[in-house]
Write a structure and sequence with these properties.
The structure holds two protein chains of two kinds. Chain A is mainly β. Chain A has one helix spanning about 135-139; strands at about 10, 15-25, 30, 45-50, 55-60, 80-85, 90-95, 110-120, 125-135. Chain B is α/β, with parallel strands linked by helices. In chain B, about 35% of the residues lie in helices and about 20% in strands. The model of chain B has no long low-confidence stretch (mean pLDDT about 95). The chains are: A mainly beta, B alpha/beta. Strand 7 (about 90-95) of chain A pairs antiparallel with strand 9 of chain B.
Chain lengths: ~140, ~375
């Protein structure tokens, strides 16, 4: 699968997960990986896979085609954007698979998916990460 | 060291779009107006601080204003560029280094700015490629969470923007001079749910200049000096929720607005409850609502009642964004923070004309907020 940036995602026994950093001194997490700790100002960060499930902390809908450097299709469909709280780790900014604000609710359970967001020049889809509502949990 | 700093000259080039006039020319216009207001010449200036985001280097303005050899330092702090220039001038005078100088902020953004390169913010290109390097999203997400946390109706967002356009219609220097009803604003194109097109400000053009001096020399230059009692700038802390953030900490911290406003009030020895007029960052109408409480001007959750009661109208108990704010003036980044100072100075002097607060205010407050999570605040008195 082609990703917008291979460094964002790692494989785990449970499936793909976002790859972040965790401070070995104060346990603060970041996404993506970084070398310095923004919490304790130290520099001993370790790679850590982030939780694949979380809850929606806030959201909006991107209502217009973003300008450059956006590389999505010319024909624009509004998409959801939000922060998903990954328990004990952090809140990650993410695209949402759900573009209808009426179908989104703060606090709802969400899970990670890898979704195509554009087609490369060679015709292959390029994927990025997104969070999707846990429909089965709501039903 | 000196006791304080006064603003003795104010000048502005009207905001909006002025075809055929460069940002630098607008800056020169504002500088000449400020100097004329103080009865001074550029050759009297002992220092300059200034900046623009995309209209050129402020220090090159000396080729037009005068090659006098003064130290002129460029300031670049995004939306807080004007505020940072002012704080630099404040420090230069307060330290005793200089007695008299000028601050200039200007900009000229094309329609639909800004295209921001994630690399400039230390973020990978994926963030821009996938459509997340978009400031309007942040404001949509921040107000969405805020309305949820404080049980505020989204309907109030259109009421705030309606006030901005009404105030702008009374201000000859504003860009947007036509009023819009709350119903029209609410029905406009959705930009970033729950915020519509007319709830957002647009990138624009304009310039503001201020002449500042030691407070004890202010009456030499002005019969109505305005005193800069407190000025503070802060960046984001671990755990605050800011624009252009691929992640935020699970633990919450107060925004830079809270930190900067507290520092400015403390420096001034003035409480938020003593403020008579405030100009606060309204990148969109939800920002005005949130910043009312973050700056300490009211309690969190109290805003809806205040707004609906008309408390923040020009004739209300605490007038906010009396010149129409960013929503009616647009946001030429380098000039925007200084526009707020200009408006408060006009109001404190009683010179605001059709949008003058009739009970002439004594204490004015200003607040800017911008990427990547910065805020600058001032407290002004007459």
């Amino acid at each position: 699968m082609r990703l917008v940036d291979d460094a964002l995602v790692t494989d785990t026994p449970d499936g793909p997960a976002l790859l972040g950093s965790r401070c070995s001194a104060c346990a603060a997490c970041t996404f993506p990986r970084q070398a310095g700790c923004p919490r304790c100002t130290g520099a001993s960060m370790m790679d850590t896979p982030l939780a694949r499930h979380g809850s929606l902390w806030t959201f909006t809908i991107q209502g217009f085609r973003p300008k450059d450097p956006y590389t999505g299709p010319e024909e624009f469909e509004p998409f959801g954007v939000g922060y998903v709280e990954l328990p004990g780790q952090l809140l990650v900014a993410t695209r949402l698979t759900e573009p209808d604000p009426e179908a989104l609710e703060i606090g709802m359970p969400m899970h990670l998916e890898l979704v195509p967001f554009r087609t490369a020049d060679d015709g292959e889809p390029v994927h990025t990460f997104a969070f999707a509502p846990d429909r089965e949990v709501r039903a | 060291m000196t006791d304080g700093v006064a603003i003795v000259g104010i000048g502005m080039h009207r905001f909006g779009r002025t075809k055929g006039v460069s940002g630098r020319a607008q800056a020169v216009h504002a500088a000449r107006e400020a100097l004329r207001d103080a009865g001074l010449a550029f050759s009297d200036m002992q220092f300059g601080f200034g900046g623009s985001h995309s209209a050129g280097d402020a220090d090159t303005l000396v080729s037009e204003l005068g090659l006098t050899g003064l130290p002129f330092i460029n300031v670049a702090n995004g939306c807080a560029t004007g505020g940072s220039a002012l704080i630099s001038a404040d420090a230069a005078i307060r330290s005793g280094q200089h007695d008299l100088g000028i601050v200039i902020g200007f900009d000229k953004h094309p329609r639909g700015a800004f295209n921001v390169d994630p690399a400039e913010h230390g973020i990978g290109s994926w963030y821009g490629e996938t459509g997340m390097m978009v400031t309007t999203q942040f404001f949509g997400m921040k107000i969405q969470r805020y309305l949820h946390d404080h049980d505020i109706s989204p309907d109030v967002l259109a009421v705030i923007a309606e006030k901005s356009f009404r105030n702008g219609s009374l201000n000859p220097n504003a860009w947007r001079r036509d009023t819009l009803t709350a119903a029209e604003i609410a029905a406009a194109t959705m930009i970033s749910h729950p915020l519509t097109q007319y709830m957002y400000c647009s990138p624009g053009e304009g310039a503001v200049a201020l002449v500042l001096c030691r407070a004890d020399q202010a009456r030499r230059y002005s019969e109505e000096p305005v005193f800069l009692r407190g000025a503070a700038f802060r960046s984001r802390r671990y755990g605050s929720f800011e624009v252009y953030a691929p992640w935020i900490a699970a633990e919450r911290a107060e925004s830079p607005t809270v930190q900067a406003s507290q520092a400015a009030f403390e420096a001034a020895g003035i409480a938020p409850s003593e403020v008579d007029i405030a100009q606060i960052q309204d990148t969109e109408s939800g920002a005005e609502l949130m910043h009312m409480a973050e700056t300490g001007l009211c309690e969190h959750g109290e805003q809806e009642h205040l707004i609906r009661a008309g408390d923040n109208e020009i004739e209300g108990r605490l007038p906010i964004n009396t010149d129409g704010g960013c929503i009616a003036n647009g946001e030429p980044v380098g000039a925007s923070g200084l526009r707020q100072i200009y408006e408060n100075a006009l109001q404190l002097r009683g010179d605001a004309g059709a949008h003058q607060v009739s009970t002439r205010p004594h204490v004015g407050f200003t607040h800017v907020y911008g990427a990547p999570g910065i805020s600058a605040c001032t407290v002004l008195t007459r």
